[in-house]
Design brief:
The chain is an alpha+beta fold. It is built from 10 helices and 11 strands. The protein has a 6-stranded antiparallel beta sheet with strand order 2-9-4-7-10-11.
Amino acid sequence: MKIEAEKIIYPIRNSFKILKYSVPQFEMPFHYHPEYELVYISKGSGKRYIGNSIHNFQSGDMVFIGADLAHIWVNEKEVKTEVDDQIVEAVVLQFSKDLLDSLIDTPEFIKIKKLFNRARSGLKIIGPTQQNIVKKLEELLICQGVERILCLIHMLDILARSKDLIPLNPVDFNPGAYHDDERINAVHHYVISRYQYKIFINEAASLAHMEKSAFCRFFKMKTQKTFTRFVNETRIDHACRLLLENRLSVSQIAFEVGFNNLANFYRQFMKITGQTPGDYKSHR
């Protein structure tokens, strides 16, 4: 999937952009930009791609995306029975990372600065925080002048203090690392879309148009990790998300993310996170 750079244009006399969309289908390509972005899907369903994460989305989905983190929403096409059957609706907020530049290093903004760092991996917003942010977005759509900035800061403060944020990519994810290499990008999407199943290194090498040995050297050079390590990190990353959602048991999660051996799941989880699944869950 080709990644394109997008230039964000702000409305006249506005320092950030917030728009409510109601369209038959999301049409933006897989893209990235230096601005932070918060997206709330009020109507629609399909798949969302953020960095190396691929998840289903539906009405009520909300995410906060850091600078240069590639993303796209692909909504499902439904059988049309009424005029607005295929309409998808979203509120999109975009603001420059320089907007709060003079404040971000002050003691009062330390939590918001940490939020921006966490947003590098993309954050899914759930629970009461999601409901509070929906209200703030409604305010932002109608308020004017200084009230807009104050409302934005208040919204960021809510996010910065929240425990309802789930990372969508590993914490050490580098958003801009793969924008210019379609081979790595293709391999990453192969792994992300198949992490629940058996993954074959020969297939990954084929996507990069390389022999297996050459591919292993190439992948290590580009990512500073082996292909096997990347596959395991991807699976453990999804396991962490499922642990936070608190719907499945540890053994169910292990098999859900592609580990056919529970002991190996525990071993890899400890190796990658430094914690057992139980400890990880209790400390979040």
